[in-house]
Structures are given as C-alpha cells and as structure tokens.
Amino acid sequence: MAALVLPAGLLVVLLLVAPMLLLFRISLNRFSPTELMVEATTAQNYLQAVQDPYYQQVLLTTLGIALGCTLVTLVMGFPAAYWLARMESRWKSLATIVTLFPLLVGNVVRAAGWMALLGNEGAINAALIGLGLISAPLPLLYNTGSVVVGIVAVVLPYMILTLAAVIEGIPRQTEEAAANLGGRPMTVFRRVLLPLALPGVMAGCVLVFILCMNTYASAVLLGGPQFKMMAPAVYDQFVRGNNWPFGAALAFILLTVTLVLTVLGSALIGRKYRR
Amino acid sequence: MGSLVLEALVKRYGASTAVERVDLDVRQGEMVALLGPSGCGKTTTLRMVAGFITPSEGRVLIGGRDVTRMPPYARDTGMVFQSYALFPHMSVAQNVAFGLEMRKVGRAERDARVMEALRLVQLDHLADRLPRQLSGGQQQRVALARALVVNPAVFLLDEPLSNLDAKLRGEVRMEIRALQQRLGLTTLIVTHDQEEALTMADRLVVMEKGRVRQVGTAEQLYEDPADPFVAGFVGRCNLLEGRVEAPGRFRTRAGDLLLCQAGGDAGEAILALRPERIALRAGGEGPARLAALTYLGAQTEYHVDFGATRLVVIGATPAAADPLRRLAAGDAVTLVWEASAARLLPAAA
Amino acid sequence: MTITRRAALAGSAAALASITAGLPGHARAQGGQVVVGTWGGDYGELLRQNIDAPLMRPKDIEVLQDIANADPRKTKLLAERQARRGTYDVACLSDTDMHMIGQQNVFDTIDTAKLSRNGAIIPALRKPYAVPHIYSALVLLYNPDKMPKPEGFAAMLDPKYRGRVGFSDILYSTNTFAAAMAAGGAFDNYEPAKKSLMDLRGLDAKVYPSNEAVAAALKSEEIWMTPMWLARGFMWQKAGIPVKHVVPQEGAYAIVFECGVPKNARNKDNAYTWLDASLDARAQTAFADRMGYLPTVTDAALPPEIMQQIGLSEAEQQRLRAPDYDYLLKNHAGILDFWNKQFKG
After folding, report:
1. Which pLDDT band holds residue B210 (cuts at 50, 70, 90)?
2. Closest residue of chain A to B53, computed from CA coordinates
3. N or C: which end of chain C has fewer CB within 10 A?
4. The pLDDT of residue C6
5. What's the pLDDT score for residue B77?
6. Is residue B50 within 8 angstroms of chain A, CB to CB?
7. Considering only A11-15, A160-164, C227-231, which range has the smallest mean pLDDT?
8. Nearest CA to B273 among B314, B235, B236, B238?
C-alpha cells in the first residue's frame, strides 16, 4: 500500500510543497532596485507589509469581499442546491450540467462578459438609455458591486454542487416528518434541514471562501484600477514592481490569513452544532 | 381525535391517474387499512391526507374540517414513516418533543408528556440516546411516540412494519393495535401485507390501479369478496373462469363441471373457491387426481387435477394413521365442498 | 508565467528541427525556427505580415510568436535568467523596460557584424544591448472639439478641466512623468509628481485599466485629455476618435520599441536574421503606415500625408529626449508604490 502511495506523494511534494518552499525562501530575500533580488534572511518584507496601512486596507477589503461573497453565495446557493437535490425527473442530470456550465468558461472570459453587460456602453446601460429611462450611463462597472457580482457568478456552482451533494443525502421524509409535526417551512429549514446540511454548508463555505480570497480576474477586470485585493497586489509586486521578495511575503500573508480563518471558522461552526 | 373523511379524491399526474375517486369514511377511533399491491395508489392517498400531495379533485375532512388546501403543518395528523424519518441530530427525547415545541407547549408540560410517551413505548430509559444508537425496533417505537405525543386528530402509518424482521413484526403489530385501541386513535394504515391488514385493522380498503375495489371488515372481504381481484389478493383462492350453465352448475373453460352456489345469472362468471373450504378424501371414482403435495407442517397443500382443471386444496396435516398421509402423486382422490363455499364473481371487466 | 500553446509547440518543433539538422544536405541551409516574444494584436500581426512572411519564410525559418504583455515577458526573462536555455530567441520591450532587464545581465551585447542593416540605424537610437525597431513620442492627446489646443502637460492641472483628464493604469510610470513635468519636474526628478498627482486626484482625474478603455472614454467624450504615445493617437484618430496631439512644451520622451537577444537564446543565428529583417526599410514603412510609429532606420521613406500626421517638426524634436533610465531603474518601485497607494488609494 505504502509503495502505491509513494509516487503520488512524491508528485504532490514536488508540485506543491517545493514551489511553496521556494516562494517562502524568496520572501526572506531583500529587494534592490538595481539588482532586484538579493540573497538575505530577513523578516523585513513581512514587517513592511503588516505595518503598511495600504496593505492592511487591501487585506481588509479582500477579507470583506471574501466573507461577503461567501455569505451571498450561501444564501443564493442553498435554494438552488435544494431544488437540484430534490429534483426527481430526468431533467436532474441536465440541471446539474447547466449548473456546471459556467465552469467551462474561464474566469477572464466570464469577467469580459460582465464588462460587456455592465460597462458604460454595455448592454444594460445601452438598453436603459435606449428606453429613455436614463440620459447618462449608470456606473455599474468598477465598483464593489460589480466585483461581488463577478465573483459570485464564478463560485456559485461550487457552492451549489457541494450543498446539493449533502442535501441529497438528507431523506425527504425527515423534512416531511417535521412538517407533519407542525413545523412551518422556515422552522423545518432552521431546525432540521440546516443542521443536517451543515457539513455541506461548511465544506461549501470553506471552498468558496478560499476561492474568493484568491480572486484575481474578477477583481482586476470588474473592480477597475482603483479596486485592490490581495491577489492582484501580489501580481503587481511580482510582475510590475519586479519586487519578488515583497510579493512572496504578501502571498504568504494571504495564505496564512486564509488558512487560519478557514480552520477557525470550521472549528467554531463545528462546535456550535456538534453534539 | 376526530373522524377522517375522503370525498371523491382524485390525483392525476399528467395523463396518468394515480388515485381515481376514492371515497372513505374513517370513524373516530377506528383503524382502517389501505391494502393493495405497490402502485395501487394507497400511499398517494395517505400522503394526500397528510398534505404532502395536493389532490387534483375531491376533499379531505379531518374532524369535519376541510383541510384539502391546508399545508401539512396545519393538519394535525401524526404520521409514522416507513423509514421512521427520525431527526438524526436530535436525541430520542428531542425527537419526541419536536411536535410539542411546534405547538408551543411549555417546558414543564413538554418534558412530562415526552416521558409519558416514551414510557408508553417502553423507551424512557433511552431518552438521551441518538437515533443511530438504537435498534430498528426501538427507532420504530420512537417514531410512534413522536407521532402520538401531540395527540393528533388522525394517526397515519405508512408501511410501519416493513423495515422490521419477521419475528419483531408480529410483536409490534400487536403493540400498535393495542395502543391504538387504548388511546382510541382514528388511524389510517397503508400496507401491502394482507396479514398485517387483516390482523390490525377494523376495516380494510382494497385498492388496485388507483381504484377502491372493496371496503369491509376482514371477514367480509374474505368471505364475500366483491370481485376476483379482492378474492385473490385477500387470502388464497382458486379462481376459475367459465360460465354458469344452470343454477348451482359451473362449467370451467376447460370443460369440467363444478358445484357452485345457487343464484347468480347464467353466463360468463368466475368461480372463487378458498383452498381450505375443499375437503380431500382418498380414493373415488371421479376425475380428480393428486398432481403434487407440499407438506407445510400444520397444514398440507395439495394440487389436484380435476379433469383439466387445476385446484389447490389446503387442509390440516392428517394424523399419521390417516390414509391421507399415504397419498402420492397420481392417486385418485375425491374433492368435496359446500355449494355455498363456491362463490360466483363477475367475470373480469 | 504561463507557457503558451505556441511556446509548447515550439518545444516539439525544436526537437524535430534538431533531428533534421543532422541529415546530409541540410548542412548549408539555415532553416529551423526563431521564438519572438512580443505583443499580440496589431503589433504581432504586422510583424507576421511584414517580417515573418516576406523575409523569414524564404530563408526557411519558422517564426513562433510568444504573445504576452510586457510585464509577464519581463518577469519570464528575469525568472529564466539562470536557466541554460530560455524561452525567447528575441524579446521585444520598450526602451525603459529593456534597460531595466538589460541591467540584470539578461541580454547579449549586439554583434553588429551580424546585422547587414546596422549602418542604416539612426545613431541616436543605438544601444549596446538592443536593436531599435520603431519609435514614437510621448504626447498629450486632447479633444479639439471641447478645448483649445493646450501648450503642454500643465493643462491637465487646470481646474477648468476638472474630471476631463484620464490615465491608462498600465502607463503609471509615463503618467507620473507627465504629472512631474506639469509641475516643474525634470527627467531625473519625478518628485513634483507627488503633489501634482494628488492635485489631479482632487480634480477627479480618471484611471482606466487599459489603453483601450482610455480610447473608449475619449470616444464617448467622458474625458478630453490623456498622456499617450503619438502612434496610438494616430491610430485612434483613424478609428474616428476625436483627438489631436501636442508635443508638450515642458518636454517629453520618445518611446523606442526595442528587440534584444537573451544570453540563453537557443537559435541565436536565426535571432540575428530576424533582427536584421526587422530593420528592413519596407517593413518599417508598413508599421508607420498602419500604426503611426516612426522608422528607426534612415532609409525608410514615409508617404507625405503620413509624415504630416506623425512626423515631428524641428522644434518638436528639440523637446524630445530619452528617459533617464538609471533614474527610472532606481525609482521604479517608488513610482509604482505612489501610484498604487497614494494616487489610486
């Protein structure tokens, strides 16, 4: 058994752990405008990032967007997942495929679609102006709202499919029993469905939260130049600033915050509902 | 507790009809069984009573109140599901308390009633367990307690015994019946098991393909089936196609002449003759020959060819000295029955 | 650092080429391939039409374009700097970027003996580590229907034009230069931009994610002014966008698009063949005609009507200088930081 697992394990180490270690090593180096990266072992990059009010704000924005999007996705995804899970007809597999459909399109292409829809000369503004409802285009693009819309559209299928898989495992009779005993729909949801779906809610939220924390394309394309999240900031440091050590430090801060919050959140929700 | 009335209840799914005009009146304290093969519409009918399915036509009245358009939570029925449908994340006590909480029963009274209900099903010592820590029979009893604790107007049982092993089934059957009678519960039970229905229910409703074939007591259904389906579904029965030649004379399709009840018009009919109503004697000059026999312990089942007509006969296994014990396939036998036992039923439509 | 499909294809083609190279009869023929890291869109298309097809294919050299924006290309060059074999045989970058990457010891010193067209290069554009391909001037584009012709970058700070100045986010360094010059800065002093950029921010200056978004904003007349390359202005004008240009009186720099050969290029001979072809007079004229860039060779003739639009007068040429590369190299991180954190923040 061990012999069978070994090659895959080595591959994981090679493809996952090794680049991370390399990135960590880079984050301890020093940046010089002329030489770019100088070998060093310093925590300077981390200190600089943590103390800089700008990056504090970027991290806060990222956290806010990620938490907000996770919540929105959960609220939107639960009814859809429930509907999908409780479907009995032959349309079910079709509905599942339709749910998966957005994942076939890359994030960038999808964001471009939103731009075509929300832009000043986009479909919505063109329609509203054409109908004479407004005279100047509404600023639908390049704000928090457009970023949230873009991200939610990306991560919603993950939430729906994760939740649906768990809800499918909850017998319909359990809900019927609760209704039969006098539970109104919201009570049945709160007292029976939600607690039983909690493993799915947790898995979906963790998955979506991690995806949201690492949002790049939606933030850049739909948030516009003024909108800053962590992943674009990391890219900025690596690619525009050529400051690899600082970029690597930012990447590790993002990774650590995501990891800590994910673990804390799961533990907290888990404790509240475990019995 | 109240009565339960179903008025011309119909449920259609697109072009197909699951339930076709069901009328039923369950009196207060009465236990009625919906009996039939799978797909006969009995479960659909039960679910329309509980409110999980909305009827296409007709009305459901509980205690005289029209609940046809009411959601399940407003109907005041207590249902025991085939799968029990216990809440896996709640303890036994919490499961039982759920319905009382929904009814805003105060904590003290709630606790008392939960314990009382659990005592009723002899599970008060397991109140803090989770459902998955219980055996199948215990889970079933929790489901009973949970449905009963709220004093529902109507008690609904959906194949409550089908997930229990054969030995437990008999015990639980009697427990449920005893409980139902003690508490005077107006009860509708769905089952495909005729023995279950016969032993538990005051009256039975035999359904087939969405229609009610006959409503009656166990005895009525057994002794006086309305049609060949009921005769065949409730108990075993020799059903022979043929025609009435003269009063008391029935000619099978194969051409053999049999004794049957008087009355009944001449013409196409089906003769229904219960296997245990035929007496078997060894020897005889008639056309009856023993084709096969199966020893069943207390009883023995004989397959007899009466001319070209095959009849099943069931009798108490004869004593060792009885000449019947020495019968073997091919032996000549004589079959005897009372004319009134061979009932004439309308030929299948 | 994604590997494009094109680059992946290049790998297998290279293997094939190395086999055929060993066969008798192929000893003299140049053949093989060359990987050019460049921009896509019109630029890449013009390279294909005017260099790859007419000049390289007859020599049996297959040109593979590895298309990306400048930033990823710079990052790839830096990342591969220690590698034995790099992705690119030729890398195209702007002069400022080329200088920065050149400082990291990435490029070969150009062996001018291998370039038959070496003599035709405009002397002022010569660099030891790169060959100039085309160039253009930094200008201020303005909407002539909405405002009188401005004198220079200082017009951006005029409160009359509140909300009418737009910047392309990717040109943060150039925009900072323009803002510095508008407020008395110099080629080696961008400090005044710190105040003038914040003033511009106070005047509701807009920032767009790309040059194309700036073009759209100019077209809808949402903005009236932007610092931009003259060549872009020429193309936008052709596309019906209402802009004219002014070479700012404060002074501005030329942008030269240059091509270098990385030290770890796999097909250096072919790289030089390609560089030589890029200096071809007809190819250079084609870029001027389509994209409004000026030739970097002395013998490429421009049609008079085009010359009139993109050519520069003697007086205008006086205002143009090369950027201070060393100043930019040292201050690049600070410029980007200020742009991100203060101006946009």
Report:
1. very high
2. A176
3. N
4. 41
5. 94
6. yes
7. A11-15
8. B238
Contact present, C214 and C228 (Cβ < 8 Å): yes
Q: Nearest-CA residue of chain A relative to C342?
A: A54
Q: Is the pLDDT of residue C23 over 70?
A: no
How many whole angstroms from its chain centre is CA B346? 23
Domains and CATH numbers, chain B: 4-223 (3.40.50.300), 237-346 (no CATH)
Say whether residue B136 is in contact with chain A using an 8 A CB cutoff. Answer: no
Q: Which amino acid is at A156?
A: L
Cα gap B202→B4, rounded to integer Å: 14
- Inter-chain residue contact A238 with C75, CB threshold 8 Å: yes
Quick check: is A22 in a domain?
no
Q: Using a CB-CB distance cutoff of 8 angstroms, which residues of chain B are in contact with residue A173?
A: 81-83, 85
Give the count of domains, chain A: 1
Q: State the nearest Cα–Cα gap between B270 and chain A, in angstroms.
A: 42
> Which residues of A are less than 8 Å from B76 in CB distance?
182
Residue type, B3: S
What residues of chain B lie within 8 A of the CB of A174, using their CB? Answer: 85-88
- Concatenated DSSP letters for B315-344? EEPPPTTSGGGG--TT-BEEEE--GGGSEE
A265 in a structural domain: no
Domains and CATH numbers, chain C: 29-135+255-308 (3.40.190.10), 136-253+314-343 (3.40.190.10)
CA distance B342 to B344: 7
Whether residue A251 lies inside any domain: the answer is no
* Phi/psi of residue B252, nearest 5 degrees: -70, 165
Domain CATH number, residue A174: 1.10.3720.10
ipTM field: 0.85
In a domain, A104, yes or no: yes
Q: Do chains B and C touch (3 or more CB pairs under 8 A)?
A: no
DSSP one-letter code for B75:
S
Chains that touch A (3 or more CB pairs under 8 A): B, C
Q: Which of A206, A207, A180 is nearest to A192 (CA)?
A: A180
Chain C residues near residue A241 by CB distance under 8 angstroms:
332-333, 336-337
| pLDDT value of residue A1 | 59
Q: What is the pLDDT of residues B184-203, one digit of tens each?
A: 999 999 998 888 898 899 99
Q: Which CA distances in Å does A254 have to A66, A155, B208?
A: 12, 19, 66
* H/E segment holding residue C92: strand C90-94
pLDDT for the residue numbered A273 = 61
Q: Which tens digits make up the pLDDT trace of C282-323?
A: 999 998 888 889 999 988 888 888 888 888 888 888 888 889
Percent of chain C residues past pLDDT 70, beyond the cut: 91
Angle among Cα C8, C9, C11 to the nearest 5 degrees reads 70
Predicted TM-score (pTM) of this structure: 0.80
Which residue in chain C has the smallest CA separation from A246?
C333
Per-residue pLDDT for B4 more than 50?
yes
Q: Do A and C count as touching (3 or more CB pairs closer than 8 A)? A: yes
DSSP-assigned letter for residue C121: B
Q: Using a CB-CB distance cutoff of 8 angstroms, which residues of chain A are in contact with residue B85?
A: 171, 173-174, 176-177
The three-state secondary structure class of B93 is helix
Tens-digit pLDDT profile for residues C144-184: 999 999 999 999 999 999 999 999 998 999 999 999 999 99
* Side-chain-side CA neighbours of residue A38 (13 Å): 10
Is residue B9 within a helix (H) or strand (E), and if so which, with residue range?
strand B4-13
Q: Is C276 exposed, middle or buried (0-12, 13-18, 19+ CB in 10 A)?
A: middle
The 10s digit of each residue's pLDDT in B212-237 is 999 999 999 999 999 999 998 888 99
Residue C221 touches partner A, C-beta closer than 8 Å? no
| Residues A121, C344: C-beta atoms closer than 8 Å | no
